[in-house]
Amino acid sequence: xxxxxxxxxxxxxxxxxxxxxxxxxxxxxxxxxxxxxxxxxxxxxxxxxxxxxxxxxxxxxxxxxxxxxxxxxxxxxxxxxxxxxxxxxxxxxxxxxxxxxxxxxxxxxxxxxxxxxxxxxxxxxxxxxxxxxxxxxxxxxxxxxxxxxxxxxxxxxxxxxxxxxxxxxxxxxxxxxxxxxxxxxxxxxxxxxxxxxxxxxxxxxxxxxxxxxxxxxxxxxxxxxxxxxxxxxxxxxxxxxxxxxxxxxxxxxxxxxxxxxxxxxxxxxxxxxxxxxxxxxxxxxxxxxxxxxxxxxxxxxxxxxxxxxxxxxxxxxxxxxxxxxxxxxxxxxxxxxxxxxxxxxxxxxxxxxxxxxxxxxxxxxxxxx
Length: 369
Hints:
Layout: E1 5-14, E2 17-19, E3 27-28, H1 29-40, E4 48-53, H2 67-81, E5 84-86, E6 100-103, H3 110-119, E7 124-127, H4 135-148, E8 151-154, H5 162-171, E9 178-184, H6 191-200, H7 211-220, E10 228-233, E11 239-244, E12 250-263, E13 268-274, E14 281-286, E15 292-298, H8 301-313, H9 325-337, E16 345-346, H10 347-368
Parallel strand pairs: 4-5, 6-7, 7-8, 9-13
Antiparallel strand pairs: 1-2, 1-3, 1-4, 8-16, 9-14, 10-12, 11-12, 12-13, 14-15
């Protein structure tokens, strides 16, 4: 996977007449290509990709690693789908119909991309997590969108995942039960691998890998900075390291962390995240004796067959991409018709999630020193 990013723009049609939209997304190249291909091939029925904005591989990175591969894919896409490639959102023509922007670039670039998409007269923006490097920047983006009358939805995909819904529903049937959300990555457990991870994700684990779980806590468990009564790290599970990245600069972060939050309104919930734990996310429910009585995985057995089939067709894509098609369809319909994008997090949820991440990080680091 290349570390650079590209963006895409799209047009869609709904029953009752054509609706042109622009979907702009900046994301890591091979993963992003997989999502783009899913839309080009009609897996989001209400969208077709018309424009792809790629300033790196169509600019300074054209002759570097991945450049020739991207350009070959671009030529194939132009030929097969009529897709137009460019290097700047600012070069887009004015929209004749509602326009939606999907942004998932480097976190540090998101505030600039966000403003460019507002200036490009987007009516809706689908912004990937965490949205911005800091709470202040994300709050400014929220204010800019509200002033411009632009709707913003967030790419917190786990909010609408089956395993989260199933776990919450089961927990409601067990009085006094406790839920733990578990997130895993598959980095090698070596200083070199984790050092590269720490540098590339310098915002830290809670603003990066575990931000999805924090969004669940904000969305469903009344977790806000003001409502947190206590947070307790599981020291037996958790680990924090200071490692050099490829640049030689040292970074301190969690390679794995588990913690439990108690709220002032009486709720408890736990999160566990492990950079080297594997590829699956899941959630558990324990009873009042601490015995696990329920576990649900993403993907579940029903979805695995579909994921395996699509992985064979798109071998460079991450498996979870293939469970997210319905999210894009909800965003498309919200843009074109105003139909509620049920389950998708708003930028308000994202601001509070980022506040919680910034609040928890030093507290948990202090507990692990």
